[in-house]
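Title: Comparing notes on inverse folding

I've been comparing how different people in this forum approach sequence design from structure. To keep things fair, I'm posting one structure and asking everyone to reply with a full sequence. Here's the target:
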């Protein structure tokens, strides 16, 4: 059965001290207040991966993710961080294809496919992000657009590789804008994504894949979003920077 997951993407926020306070607050609240089965993922900036990972390692609900991984294995790639490096400091998950990476760093489908392969080869679990810009939704091409993103970066993975993948649907028009997708819009896209995954892999793999919603998810809308049958949790940006809000979202299942 697929996991319920709430992942907090801290992006380029927080100093070292702030990051440690945030994660210890989350850790305490998750221990004290979260009863059900839920996988909580924190995604700090690279320099804090190891200390944040150490802090959460005694909490079986909490897991560590990186925000990015290089498509190269090793070598002369100044500023890049490899999958093996991430694995060696205890990272378990990694974001691949976040719209900010696609937009500001021109990461295309081929690059993302290579990142997926690198991550998987090192035993990391990719959280593959997809989602349409506003023009595509307004033109009623959002299903086609997301279907293409899935096909272009995932279809060459084996079934065994795909078993390790989490998918996050993040409509670009909802990220950091305060404008969230309605629960109906999220549900219909998640159901569509699951259908596409069944075509690319098989029905069982699609059924077992966690599909997260991301885009201005907050304590006020998480419950309705997570109640949808194909929404298995959330990828949370802004609201993951406040421990109380993040934990309230975790408690929304
Ligand atoms: C994100 O960037 O992954 C995200 C969902 O951001 P926000 O929650 O701030 O919209």
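Reply #1:
Here's my take.
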């Amino acid at each position: 059965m697929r996991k319920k997951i709430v992942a907090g993407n801290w992006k380029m926020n927080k100093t070292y001290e702030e990051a440690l306070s945030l994660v210890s607050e989350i850790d305490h609240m998750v221990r004290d207040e979260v009863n059900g089965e839920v996988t909580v993922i924190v995604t700090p900036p690279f320099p804090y991966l190891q200390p944040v990972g150490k802090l959460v390692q005694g909490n079986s609900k909490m897991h560590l993710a990186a925000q990015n991984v290089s498509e190269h294995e090793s070598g002369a790639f100044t500023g890049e961080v490899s999958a093996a490096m991430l694995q060696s400091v205890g990272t378990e998950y990694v974001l691949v294809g976040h719209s900010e990476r696609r937009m500001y760093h021109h990461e295309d489908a081929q690059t993302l496919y290579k990142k997926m392969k690198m991550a998987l080869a090192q035993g990391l679990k990719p959280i593959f992000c997809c989602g349409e810009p506003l023009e595509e939704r307004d033109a009623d091409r959002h299903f086609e657009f997301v279907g293409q993103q899935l096909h272009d970066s995932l279809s060459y993975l084996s079934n065994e590789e795909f078993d390790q993948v989490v998918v996050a649907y993040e409509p670009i028009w909802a990220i950091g804008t305060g404008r969230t997708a309605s629960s109906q819009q999220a549900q219909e896209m998640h159901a569509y994504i699951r259908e596409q995954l069944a075509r690319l892999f098989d029905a069982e793999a699609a059924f077992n894949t966690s599909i997260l919603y991301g885009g201005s998810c907050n304590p006020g809308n998480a419950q309705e979003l997570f109640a949808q049958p194909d929404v298995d949790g959330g990828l949370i940006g802004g609201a993951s920077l406040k421990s109380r809000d993040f934990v309230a979202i975790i408690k929304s299942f």
